[in-house]
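We emphasize that the prediction below concerns an isolated chain of 241 residues; any contacts that depend on oligomerization or on bound cofactors are therefore not represented. The input was used exactly as deposited, without trimming of termini.
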Amino acid sequence: MYFKIPDQYKSGIEFILNTDDDTIDVIISALRDFPPTAENVIYKISERIVQTQKVDAPTAVKFVDTLVSLRQLNKEEKLSNEAIVTLITESVEKDTEFVVTTEPRERFRKRLSSLLQALESIAFSLDISDKASNLLIEHERIFSDSRIFTDIRPVFDSETERKVEAAILIHTLKIEYRDIEGTKEFYIALDSNDLDNLYEQITIAIDNRDALESILRKAEIECINPALEVSVLENLENDDE
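Result of the prediction step, given as a token string:
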């Protein structure tokens, strides 16, 4: 079985290959001591690694994202950690972007094996986060971004069409969303009353969110926002471009 390593994970693999032993040991300890959580797991693990002062934030997030993606092979392909280590090691050797000799190969195998074992200590948090993300993406369309453009449109004299008699404000709402085919967008024309209506509905939704989050906190139930973690990772990818 050959596995082509996606470009977004190559920097994480490179980190495992080339960083020093002390940094790897510190990261393994941070993973094993990571407290249970269900919210923004990748980002919070990365924060814990950054606190060791061994790795900067962008590197930590990409490294953890790579490691978690390898764990998904365990779940999706039903591969053991040992099989994953063998598969990734062979894939790295076949990829011309990586330079691997005999000694780094064995070191990489041991490091990856230890890291995956350490990751199992937070399996519960990762599984809860996965389930939350799956609930989010079950919808046909997922909101990505929005923007409102405002234009002044003149109203001309009806007889000569040369004199501006009045003006109106036209607001255009741009909504970006993701579906199975990728990112798409559409536009909606709004007047000032429409803006007031949107503001009112959003204010109500925010109040409802705050009230429900308060109830969940009192019941000691963690409220998960999987979209936040996705946006953090997307921003890092955009910074690299």
